[in-house]
# Entry
Amino acid sequence: MNVSDGERLANLLESHGCTRATKEKDADIIVVVSCSIRQKAMDKLFGKLPTWRKWRQQRGVRTVLTGCVLPSDRRKLKKEFDIFIEMKDIADLPSLLKLTPSDADQGEVTNADYLALKPDYKSKIQAYIPIMTGCNNYCTFCVVPYTRGQESSRSSSEIISEVKKLISKGYSEIILLGQNVNAYIDPDKYHDQDTIYSRSRYFWEFKKDQPIQWRMATTKVPKDFAMLLKKINRIPGKFWVRFLTSNPQDVSDELIDTLDKCHKLTKYFHLPIQAGDDEILRRMNRRHTRDYYLKLIKKIRKARPGTAITTDIIVGFPGETKKQFEETAKVMREVKYDMAYIAEYSPRPGTSAQRFFKDDVSRQEKIRRRKILNNILAETALANNKKLVGQTITMLVDKYNKETKSNSGKTGTNKTVHFKGKNFVGKFTNVKINQVSAWGLAGELSK
Ligand code: SF4
# Structure
């Protein structure tokens, strides 16, 4: 999402006379699109401050902070940046920087609709298209609802027109983005705001020294995302469609049914489980259980055999016992993921977990648990990849190394493949797989 935000931001500044600096030290304006999901990214930002402070004093560099920034970090960083601006208001940035438009063609941009800004796509092959932003789920470890705000979707007509333009320019892969893509609600379809906002429904009450009060407003899973996929699938041309990220609770039967009907959808499903123990899931305010999740995986695999499943997992969430952690390890062995993004829990300021739960799993134990899961992942990913040896697979080439005469790219299942030969960048290519590791494949061009 931050890559996509950066692309929109770049075009906005370029349309106001700015040009890209090739090196950070040459820039007159530095815009930081920050991420508060993990402490590591914020530590990196804080580490950069002394250099930027020096540049601001010595040569008048102007610095701007946007993206996911927690209120507590915003207070700390206030003096370090000339401008702080919410991503949703980013269309105002040129006027705050006193830049004059050199190309007024930015469409009808309102402050409430930064997604309408035209992006300056980094790649000529794949394009990230945000279809919604924000989240109403309030997982207790997550900052997104606080930094990105409530769910807000783009109209399907606008998305379709962006996809059509990209396909006519020769793009081969469309990646639909949202913090919770399945929660997409098409504003073209609903004209009454009550329907659109009916998903603003989850809130949690934590009273000191009292059991946590979980309040849940039940809502129907919207069908709009499945409908949007069908519309995109009908656009003529040869291209792939991917989407991320999905919350298990919002994966509708319509979406599962759509997987096999939309042949442009790749066989790839990223479905974060976060933990394999129901009590930890409850404390995380995830509204799925382990059994529900496992049934969902079965449904996806039945609907679209050969789909690669990937996930996100947090180890060492407050109160996670060794036995509860074992449940996560069991799920990993059972699902046999192709990839998993495993993070050690770190308390994010302002989240419910940080305010109400003690970060009581030691760093050492978190590292131990992460390593165990990484080892399981390495085994399952390798076993999955071994089944591909001898098979001919279609991949989309996105890089070419002239020195080694080697192409690389991704399969529809999002696995990296290398093969030698002339430059095939931007092309769908069939490759016969003859070598595999847990993290990638290699092969030769298939005739
Ligand atoms: S569903 Fe995802 S984005 Fe939303 S609160 Fe939970 S982890 Fe954060």
Q: What stands out?
A: Residues 107-112, 193-203 have pLDDT under 50 and may be disordered. The chain is about 35% helix and 20% strand. The domain at 114-386 is CATH 3.80.30.20 (pyruvate-formate lyase- activating enzyme). The pocket of iron/sulfur cluster is lined by residues 135, 137-139, 142, 144-145, 179-180, 247 (CB under 6 Å).
